[in-house]
Design goal:
The chain contains 12 helices and 6 strands. It is α/β, with parallel strands linked by helices and 235 residues long. The protein folds into 2 domains: 138 residues, Rossmann fold, CATH 3.40.50.1000; 86 residues, Up-down Bundle (Four Helix Bundle (Hemerythrin (Met), subunit A)). A 6-stranded parallel sheet has the order 3-2-1-4-5-6, with helices on both faces. The radius of gyration is 19 Å and the shape is elongated. The N and C termini lie close together (7 Å). Bound molecules: magnesium ion (MG). Magnesium ion binds next to loops.
């Protein structure tokens, strides 16, 4: 069966993301120290993270809405530390802008652009993310026919919704599609449930068996430079 669509996870697949988020949260906290010192007197950076995680547990319907949850957690922290209700919406917007600015300053892996350039000539490419990065701002939107996020679709990977939406949008069958991502559950298991081929991007060279007891990915690569040949094998 010919491969027609290749979908990519973004965070930790096309760039290293953990340091990006850590830096973005640090920038927000510094901004909060200047703009809302009453909040930072009461909340450490770790406590703000806890507050956000708590919100997701209490309101599971928000689990796909990462931007909304982040804004809501800042709003609650501002409310609980005696900020004027009239100032809160504006403050929340500013702090979230600060987060997004830093969040989109990513350093792509060295093979990301060469890989996307090569694949774009042969396949339809799409991005499927649970996060809130902006490919226009990052500068790689031109390589993708379309981009879907959990926020837009209303359900995060590994739930099938976003994969279904991608197949529907590209008008392709699961067996004509390969999904590439770093996460054993969100990416590999999520796509496999629908019969989509999977390439597990595993730069840390972890053992699949240590990560998951589910069906193995169709292929595993340790570097993005190995993807073209992995796709050839699947074809
Ligand atoms: Mg990822």
């Amino acid at each position: 069966m010919a491969i027609k669509l290749i979908t990519f996870d973004l965070d930790n697949t096309l760039w290293e993301n953990d340091t990006v988020i850590a830096r973005a949260e640090k920038a927000c906290y510094t901004f909060l120290q200047q703009q809302a010192p009453k909040l930072t007197e009461h909340y450490s950076p770790e406590q703000l993270v806890q507050l956000r995680l708590q919100l997701m547990t209490q309101q599971p319907h928000l689990s796909a809405q990462v931007s909304k949850v982040r804004k809501l957690s800042i709003q609650q922290a501002l409310e609980s530390t005696g900020h004027d209700n009239n100032d809160i919406p504006d403050l929340v917007a500013k702090i979230f802008d600060c987060f997004l600015q830093e969040r989109n300053k990513v350093e792509l892996f060295p093979h990301t652009i060469p890989l996307l350039k090569t694949l774009k000539n042969q396949y339809q490419l799409a991005s499927l993310t649970n996060g809130n990065s902006d490919l226009e701002k990052i500068g790689i939107a031109e390589y993708f026919s379309f981009s879907l996020s959990a926020e837009k679709v209303g359900a995060s990977k590994p739930r099938p919704n976003i994969f279904h939406a991608a197949l529907h949008k590209a008008n392709v069958k699961p067996e004509e599609t390969i999904h590439i991502g770093d996460h054993h559950l969100d990416d590999v298991h999520g796509a496999q449930q629908l019969g989509i081929h999977t390439i597990w991007f595993n730069p840390k060279k972890q053992r699949w068996e240590d990560q998951s007891d589910r069906e193995k990915p169709t292929a595993t690569v340790h570097c993005l430079s190995e993807i073209i040949s992995a796709i050839e094998k699947i074809r």
